Amino acid sequence: MTLENYNFDGFVLGLYLDEQGDWLAYFQEIPSISAFGDTPQEALEELQTAWEMCKDEYRAQNRTIPIPQNRNSQVA
Questions:
Q1: What are the tens digits of pLDDT across the range 48-69?
Q2: What is the distance between the alpha carbons of residues 6 and 28, in angstroms, rounded to a whole number?
Q3: What are the residue ranges of helices labelled H in 1-76?
Q4: CA neighbours closer than 13 Å in the CB half-sphere of residue 27
Q5: CATH architecture assignment, domain 9-63
């Protein structure tokens, strides 16, 4: 599976292996949205789930979904 299989709405991702051997995936622009996994793919899959849940919460609260600064004219 490649990054094309995921929809992160143009955000820049960070992905690294921590000291315990877990992979952490996160948005560089919104580091509070992150996810762990045993493999890079699992971390990205969990991040995709977390992002979808965050967007659902924004919608439920009638709040604007964040977009990357380089996409200031588009909506996520």
A1: 999 999 999 999 999 999 998 8
A2: 16
A3: 40-60
A4: 18
A5: 2-Layer Sandwich (3.30)
